[in-house]
Design brief:
The protein is mostly helical. It is built from 16 helices and 2 strands. It has 2 domains: 318 residues, no CATH class; 138 residues, no CATH class. The chain has a two-stranded antiparallel ribbon with strand order 1-2. The longest helix has 42 residues.
Length: 477
């Protein structure tokens, strides 16, 4: 075991020697059930969450000078060398191509490997795939997988608190890279990654981290040089500069993705969706969605969201290299988006003095009761346009909430029928149950389409109704 000062990034891995992890099933082989929105993939228990070091406003954690010098001096040398090479020799398409390809390879080792597989267990992967993730992730020089994932699980379990290793509420600089400059909050305890420490591939990577990162980077640059020439350019651009770019792309998710963007899924944390960040982070920019649905293998849930990592995982799944891809059910995603948008509308109505939150809730409940009792009888007698619009908005919101409740009930019924298939002893009854399951799945798809249509209608009516309201009166001090 290492004694003396330790670091959350480099120095703490010199001379490994962590005690053996207790026998435990790997999460990659036994994924947990998909968590509810805003719940951690790895629930906190007393043994899993050692208390962070006490911190107050005036407390300063000790600096880890090895990390400080590496992330500043190395970056300065790499950028200076790249500028010098560009001005004196000239950067061609060969260096750019090699840099982008190796960037994507090592970056996917972080996004698809360290992040979505090892940290969140969002799918299961073949041992060969896990090995390549371990090797390429090490080449990104962002720490070994066990340490990286430990910090990341604590980040999700205690987001925006003192227990968050890269707490965004402490400022952009701290969450970007300042946290790497100081001693770790938990004295390098890895109690929340026992499943990863029991993985022989990750244990091997942890023991040989520096050797793996050195050999892999040299090998990748050598291959680029052999194929494309321009050896000096490959070393500087595809080697030195590329490492800096990959590191800061990851750092931006910890910092910028908690500062700028939208919060369509939840405002319970500082996380943001930022499509622009996704363009150079291999799809990691949809961070608000990720914090709401941590175990989903997708960060960008829509087909057009730029998320190369999800496309890689899906592609591996189609050829058998990845299995158990975990997607949040469409009705859960829709319900979460609807609840957040509904809460936002209620807050605006309350702030503008049009409707108090309690009054709006009562109106919705009243409309729900009316629809349940007399669904076919709609009120068309209102004459004023604003009143008609309000009634349509209430009707749509109540209908959508009922649709979502029905979807949840159908999903529960489907799970119950799927469990009962194996228990049926009669082939005839088993066939009957399978037909019921097929019918339920068809009904769920139909209900999902109906709920999505109602949500789009509700969103349009909410915008129209909000636009018809008088501007809020400014509050004078």
């Amino acid at each position: 075991m290492v004694h003396g000062p330790v670091t959350p990034y480099l120095a703490r891995y010199v001379g490994m020697g962590l005690p053996a992890a207790p026998a435990r099933s790997l999460c990659i082989d036994h994924p947990q059930a998909l968590p509810s929105p805003r719940l951690s993939t790895h629930p906190k228990t007393p043994s899993d969450t050692p208390s962070p070091l006490p911190r107050t406003e005036n407390t300063r954690l000790p600096l880890v000078w090895l990390n400080v010098w590496f992330l500043t001096a190395y970056a300065a040398i790499a950028i200076t060398a790249a500028v010098w090479y560009g001005l004196t020799v000239g950067i061609t398409w060969r260096e750019v191509l090699a840099c982008l390809v190796i960037w994507a390879m090592t970056g996917l080792g972080i996004t698809a490997g360290y992040h979505r597989l090892f940290s969140h267990c969002s799918y299961k992967a073949h041992a060969v795939v896990r090995f390549f993730y371990a090797v390429l992730g090490a080449a990104a020089i962002q720490n070994n997988a066990i340490a990286w994932c430990s910090d990341h699980r604590y980040h999700h379990a205690e987001t925006d608190t003192d227990g968050d290793p890269y707490d965004a509420t402490r400022g952009f600089w701290y969450s970007h890279m300042g946290w790497i400059f100081v001693k770790g909050l938990r004295n390098n305890e890895y109690a929340n990654v026992a499943d990863l420490r029991a993985d022989p591939i990750l244990a091997w990577q942890q023991r040989n981290y520096f050797a793996i990162l050195a050999v892999t980077n040299v090998l990748l640059v050598t291959i680029a040089g052999l194929l494309l020439g321009n050896w000096l350019g490959m070393i500087i651009i595809a080697g030195l500069l590329r490492i800096v770019l990959v590191q800061h792309a990851t750092f931006l998710i910890n910092s910028a993705a908690h500062c700028w963007g939208t919060q369509p899924w939840s405002n319970s944390t500082t996380s943001r969706d930022n499509w622009f960040l996704s363009l150079f982070t291999l799809g990691e920019g949809y961070h608000n969605y990720h914090h709401a649905f941590q175990a989903d293998y997708r960060n960008g849930p829509r087909w057009y969201n730029w998320d190369p990592t999800k496309w890689l995982i899906w592609g591996m799944g189609s050829i058998g290299l990845a299995t158990g891809l975990r997607r949040t059910p469409a009705e859960v995603v829709l319900d979460t988006r609807f609840q957040e948008s509904s809460r936002s509308l209620t807050d605006r109505l309350d702030a503008w003095g049009v409707h108090k939150a309690e009054e709006w809730s009562e109106l919705i409940q009243e409309k729900k009761s009316h629809l349940l009792d007399r669904r076919d009888e709609l009120i068309h007698s209102l004459k004023e346009e604003k009143a008609v619009l309000r009634d349509r908005l209430l009707t749509t919101q109540a209908t959508l909430e009922l649709n979502l409740q029905e979807l949840k009930a159908m999903r529960a019924s489907l799970r119950e029928r799927m469990r009962s298939v194996s228990s049926e002893s009669s082939d005839e009854w088993r066939l009957v149950v399978k037909r019921e399951i097929k019918h339920l799945r068809h009904s769920i798809r139909q209900a999902q389409r109906t709920a999505k249509a109602h949500y789009r209608g509700w969103e349009r009516l909410a915008r129209e109704y909000a636009a018809s309201l008088p501007a809020p009166v400014p509050v004078t001090a």
